[in-house]
């Protein structure tokens, strides 16, 4: 159990993304006695040692967290339910709702666009989103025909430029929708971040992982 680069790391590796998830996970980790020794915002380091020599953090893209944990490159991870639902979350055990980075997955349109009318007429709706699977499932369940337009960011721009009639995106404060003259018309899912564990690692190394998982779960209980 050491963190030098010459010896393989034998402790617990936790994958998480920079930004809001990192910021909101830190207090929960601190309650579990895990404090990063390096600030990922001011350092280029992607592997962060912590106050616990047997625990390290790896910084990855939010949508890459499930891959790291599924393939065992990380034992634990923090991932948004949006990412887990969109990707399927296969092989992942999800023991703790961390109740952080909360938001809603919603359908939004330009203010004044007659969404219900368009659906009622059976119009084929052009929907821009990075959540292709979740959007497809949502509209299929409603029996609405859609042309899905896959985007990787700035979904809010699509209705404003005529690229799409509607978007499926995350909304938290609603400020981004308001600033772009959009309005939410449907709620698809309540989202928060989940602690995810590699299913095989959980079976093999449960006595090593469980104390960390339980400490984080306890942190959530004390925080919310
Ligand atoms: O940025 P990057 O491309 O690396 O990846 P990412 O965008 O997936 O990462 P990040 O850090 O932006 O988001 C990580 C996770 O945070 C998401 O997977 C969600 O589970 C969660 N989360 C919570 C959010 C939001 N709230 C949120 N509001 N993720 C994104 N947003 C965006 C939203 O897409 C929209 O553009 O913020 C904007 C709306 O915010 P409001 O406050 O104006 O409504
Ligand atoms: Mg982002």
TrEMBL record:
Its EC number is 2.4.2.17. HAMAP family: HisG_Short (MF_01018). It is found in: Cytoplasm. Heteromultimer composed of HisG and HisZ subunits. The gene is hisG. Pathway: Amino-acid biosynthesis; L-histidine biosynthesis; L-histidine from 5-phospho-alpha-D-ribose 1-diphosphate: step 1/9. Residues 61-217 form the ATP phosphoribosyltransferase catalytic domain. Catalyzes the condensation of ATP and 5-phosphoribose 1-diphosphate to form N'-(5'-phosphoribosyl)-ATP (PR-ATP). Has a crucial role in the pathway because the rate of histidine biosynthesis seems to be controlled primarily by regulation of HisG enzymatic activity. Lacks the C-terminal regulatory region which is replaced by HisZ. One of its GO terms (cellular component) is cytoplasm. GO terms for biological process: L-histidine biosynthetic process. The lineage of its organism: Bacteria, Pseudomonadati, Pseudomonadota, Betaproteobacteria, Ferrovales. Its main location: cytoplasm. InterPro entries: ATP_PRibTrfase_cat, ATP_PRibTrfase_CS, ATP_PRibTrfase_HisG, ATP_PRibTrfase_HisG_short. Belongs to the ATP phosphoribosyltransferase family. Short subfamily. Keywords: Amino-acid biosynthesis, ATP-binding, Cytoplasm, Glycosyltransferase, Histidine biosynthesis, Nucleotide-binding, Transferase. This is ATP phosphoribosyltransferase. GO terms for molecular function: ATP binding; ATP phosphoribosyltransferase activity.
């Amino acid at each position: 159990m050491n963190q030098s680069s010459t010896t393989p790391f034998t402790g617990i590796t936790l994958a998480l993304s920079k930004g809001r998830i990192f910021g909101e996970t830190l207090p929960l980790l601190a309650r579990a006695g895990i404090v990063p020794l390096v600030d990922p915002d001011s350092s280029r380091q992607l592997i962060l040692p912590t106050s616990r020599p047997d625990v390290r953090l790896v910084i990855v893209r939010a949508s890459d967290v499930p891959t790291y944990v599924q393939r065992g490159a990380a034992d634990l991870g923090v991932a948004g339910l949006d990412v887990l639902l969109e990707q399927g979350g296969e092989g992942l055990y999800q023991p703790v709702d961390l109740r952080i980075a909360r938001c809603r997955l919603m359908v939004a349109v330009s203010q004044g666009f007659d969404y219900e009318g368009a659906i009622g007429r059976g119009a084929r709706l052009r929907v821009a989103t990075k959540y292709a699977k979740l959007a497809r499932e949502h509209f299929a369940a409603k029996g609405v025909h859609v042309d899905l337009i896959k985007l990787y960011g700035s979904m809010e721009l699509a209705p404003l430029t005529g690229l799409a009639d509607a978007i499926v995106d995350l909304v938290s404060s609603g400020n981004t929708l308001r600033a772009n003259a959009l309005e939410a018309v449907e709620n698809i899912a309540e989202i928060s971040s989940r602690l995810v564990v590699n299913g095989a690692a959980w079976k093999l190394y449960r006595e090593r992982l469980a104390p960390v998982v339980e400490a984080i779960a306890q942190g959530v209980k004390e925080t919310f």
